[in-house]
Design a protein that fits this description.
Beta-Lactamase, Helix Hairpins, 15 helices, 5-stranded antiparallel sheet, elongated, alpha+beta, about 500 residues, 4 domains, single chain
C-alpha cells in the first residue's frame, strides 16, 4: 500500500506550536533565576510584553512585582515548590496590574494559573510550563453578584425583612438571623422548618399555608399573611412573599422568600375595626328610627296630591337603605379581621334561598328583568344568611352596572361534588387588570361610567371572605362592554 510522500515538517515546529498556544510560558528550573526560554503570543499580549524583552531573562527580572504577592500566589514560592515536589500547582485566582496600551494606563486583571513540571531523563524537574487563563470577567461578575447580595441583605435588614431559601429536594432550609426574631426567638437561635410550622396558627396552616404552597408549585409565586404564636404565648402576624425556582425540566427545586412582621399593622387594623364596629352599632339605632319615621310619613301622605313630597320621601327612603347596607357592611367587615365572623351552618335548599333573594330584589328594583329557572332541589350545608348576603351582593352589582330593561340571569347547578351559583349581566363589563383586584378590600374600578355609583368596595371583599370561610371558590368572568358573570361554588355535604 502506497502512503505517498509525507509532509516535511519545519525543524522548529514545536516552537511554532508553543508560540501559538494559549497563555503559555516556559521557564528553566534554575533556581533562583527561573530563566524564561519560551513564551506564547497570547502570554505576551496579556502581560503587555515582547518576546525580545523577556527571553533569556529571569522571571523576576521581567516581573519584579510578583515578589510582593502572598505566599500562595508568589511565583518564586510556587516555582520552588514545583521543583522540590515535582508536582503541578494551580493558583485559582491571580491578580496582576497590566498596562493597557489603548487606554494608556494600568488596569487590574485576574488570571487562573497552572504550573506543570517537565522532567529530564533523570526524573528531575528541568522546566516549568506556566499557563495562564484570563478570568477577569468572571471575577468581576462574581464581585458584582456579591455586592448585589450585600446590598440586598442590607436593604432587607433596613426594612426588617427576613430572607429564606428552601431546597425542595433535600429540605435544606437557610435563613437570615432576622427570621428567628420574627418568630419570637433571640437572633442567634437555630430554628428548623418544623419549628416554624408548629408556631403557625393551626387553622391558618391548613386553610392558607398549605393552599399557598400547592398553588406556588403550579404558578411559581406566592403571597399570604398568617397568625403565629410566639413562645411567650402572644399572638403575632407575618406576611410571606416569594417565588419557586424550577429546573430545566420545569420541576420545582427551590423556594425563595421574605417574611415581614406585620403585627403592629394588624393591631392597628383591629383597633380601627373596633372603632368602626362601635360607630356602626351606634348609628344603627337612630337610622332605624329615621327609617321608621319616613315610612310612617310616606304612609300618612300616600293620598296627598303633592308629588314633590311623595317623590322626596321615596328618595329619602332609598338613601336610608343605602346607608343601612353600608353600616351592616362595615359591621361585617369589623368582624372579619379578628376572626369574629362565625358561621352558623345548617342544611337548606339553595334554590329556595335564591328565589327569596330574587323576590326581595324585584321589589326594590322593578326596572330590571331577572330570570331564574331552578333545577331540582339542591341541599347545601352552609350559613344561610351569609350565603344569601353573597347572592344579594351579586344581584345588586348586576343591577348597578346594567342599564334598566337589561336581562340578568341566575343559574344554580351541580358541578361534581360542588354546587355553583352564577349571576350574569349584560352591563359595562370589567377590564382584565381590574378583575384581579375586585375581591380586595375597598377596591373600586375607576371609570367615567362608575364614578357616580355609590359604594366603598366592601361587598365583594365580604363575599370572598364568606365563601373562603365555607372552603368554596369565588370568581368572575368578564369582557369590557359585554357584561360579567360572577360565580361561587360550595362543597356539597357528603
Amino acid at each position: 500500500m502506497s502512503t505517498g510522500s509525507l509532509p516535511v515538517l519545519p525543524e522548529n515546529i514545536f516552537q511554532i506550536v508553543f508560540e501559538k498556544s494559549p497563555g503559555s510560558l516556559l521557564v528553566k528550573a534554575d533556581l533562583p533565576h527561573f530563566t524564561i526560554v519560551a513564551a506564547s503570543d497570547s502570554y505576551l499580549e496579556i502581560t503587555a510584553s515582547s518576546r525580545k524583552d523577556i527571553l533569556g531573562k529571569g522571571f523576576f527580572e521581567v516581573f519584579p512585582d510578583d515578589e510582593k504577592f502572598d505566599e500562595d500566589t508568589n511565583a518564586r514560592y510556587v516555582f520552588t515548590k514545583v521543583v522540590e515536589t515535582g508536582e503541578a500547582i494551580e493558583v485559582p485566582t491571580y491578580r496582576f496590574d497590566v498596562y493597557n496600551k489603548s487606554k494608556k494606563q494600568d488596569e487590574i486583571r485576574y488570571w487562573s494559573c497552572c504550573n506543570t513540571p517537565i522532567l529530564n531523563p533523570d526524573r528531575k524537574v528541568a522546566y516549568i510550563l506556566n499557563t495562564v487563563v484570563d478570568i477577569t470577567d468572571e471575577v468581576k461578575a462574581r464581585e458584582a453578584a456579591l455586592e448585589s447580595e450585600s446590598r440586598l441583605r442590607l436593604a432587607a435588614e433596613a426594612a426588617e425583612f427576613a430572607t429564606w431559601d428552601l431546597n425542595l429536594l433535600n429540605q435544606t432550609f437557610i435563613y437570615s438571623p432576622r427570621l428567628s426574631e420574627i418568630f419570637g426567638h433571640p437572633p442567634e437561635t437555630v430554628i428548623t422548618l418544623d419549628d416554624i410550622r408548629k408556631q403557625v396558627n393551626k387553622d391558618d396552616m391548613q386553610n392558607i399555608v398549605v393552599k399557598a404552597y400547592e398553588q406556588a408549585l403550579k404558578l411559581g409565586n406566592y403571597l399570604y399573611e398568617v397568625r403565629i404564636n410566639w413562645p411567650d404565648g402572644s399572638l403575632h402576624w407575618i406576611k410571606t412573599q416569594g417565588l419557586v425556582i424550577k429546573d430545566k425540566e420545569g420541576q420545582p427545586v427551590r423556594m425563595l422568600g421574605t417574611i415581614l412582621d406585620t403585627t403592629e399593622t394588624k393591631r392597628d387594623e383591629i383597633r380601627k375595626n373596633d372603632f368602626i364596629a362601635m360607630a356602626s352599632h351606634e348609628l344603627k339605632t337612630p337610622l332605624t328610627s329615621l327609617k321608621a319615621y319616613i315610612q310612617l310619613l310616606a304612609k300618612k301622605l300616600a293620598s296627598s296630591d303633592d308629588g314633590f313630597v311623595i317623590n322626596s320621601l321615596d328618595k329619602a327612603g332609598i338613601q336610608i337603605n343605602k346607608m343601612t347596607d353600608l353600616i351592616y357592611g362595615f359591621l361585617d367587615l369589623s368582624k372579619l379581621e379578628p376572626g369574629m365572623l362565625q358561621l352558623v351552618k345548617e342544611d337548606f335548599e339553595i334554590n329556595k334561598l335564591i328565589s327569596d333573594c330574587l323576590a326581595e330584589m324585584k321589589l326594590t328594583h322593578p326596572g330590571h328583568i331577572i330570570n331564574f329557572e331552578p333545577q331540582k332541589n339542591i341541599i347545601v350545608k352552609a350559613d344561610r344568611e351569609k350565603i344569601g348576603q353573597v347572592i344579594t351582593n351579586f344581584l345588586s352589582n348586576a343591577i348597578k352596572y346594567s342599564n334598566k330593561g337589561c336581562t340578568i340571569i341566575i343559574s344554580c347547578k351541580k358541578t361534581g361534588s360542588n354546587v355553583t351559583v352564577s349571576v350574569t349581566d349584560k352591563g359595562i363589563g370589567i377590564k382584565p387588570k381590574d378583575q384581579e383586584k375586585l375581591f380586595q378590600r375597598f377596591y373600586r374600578v375607576e371609570s367615567e361610567r362608575m364614578k357616580n355609583i355609590s359604594g366603598f368596595g366592601i361587598g365583594l371583599y365580604l363575599a370572598n371572605e364568606i365563601i373562603q370561610l365555607h372552603k368554596g371558590e369565588i370568581g368572575v368572568e368578564s369582557a369590557e362592554g359585554k357584561g360579567s358573570t360572577f360565580y361561587f361554588s360550595l362543597p356539597l355535604p357528603d
